Amino acid sequence: MPxxxxxGRRPEMxxxxxxxxxxxxRRDQNRGDSGRRGLLAGAAGVLMTISLAGSMSHxxxxxxxxxxxxxxxxxxxxxxxxxxxxxxxxPVQLQRRLEARGHKVVIVNAGVSGDTASGGLERLDWSIAAxxxxxxxxxxxxxxxxxxxxxxxxxxxxxxxSRLRAKGLEVLLAGMLAPRNLGEAxxxxxxxxxxxxxxxxxxxxxxxxxEGVVGVPRFNLNDGIHPTAEGVGLIADRMLPAVERLLAxxxxxxxxx
Length: 257
Hints:
By secondary structure, the protein is α/β, with parallel strands linked by helices. It has a 5-stranded parallel beta sheet with strand order 2-1-3-4-5, with helices on both faces. 50% of the residues lie in helices and 11% in strands. Helix 5 crosses helix 12 and helix 9 packs parallel to helix 11.
């Protein structure tokens, strides 16, 4: 069940949403991209992520001497690890699980809190290192929360995937579902973006990033939106097979297959 439909229209949830993402969307409001409110809300996330990505690039340099595969996780607060220690963020938890299964891999955290798909496109060039071999794209949650026109989200994600593929990267696209309180037509148009683009670009696909986590209090922070460290761990566990398929493609490309 998608994000906002967990709660109906609870006033305390709308207060949080307004503070974090800007004015809360209603069904009769314009659903176009209303600007950079999400990125302004995520300014601290930008600084945190730049610092983390920089520190992890040094880890990547050292690890790559031993042939580690190099991935980048491009996302929003669900990737960045909003409200969590840096070592509890999704890219770190995924990397630990992969290493425990014998994979040599480094996953750089390129998550920015508050980012939309359009924001991810704007920062794509400086978010993806030149030596990256694969990417996990997990954007669109803020688009849905703000009621942005699905056509805008689709166009941005399409461009991201096109540019990543043009760079020669293998890609895993993580899907998102729209809040049902924005209407059936909106949800239908938004939900279709991810499977459509995964097929179109021939990339690996994980249907719903928050599968198994939404609506379960122990897996979410008090805001009811962002996962706890345990919730992120569950996401990592569920995503692991898809990420291993991504790694297999990266390894095959390295081997020249």
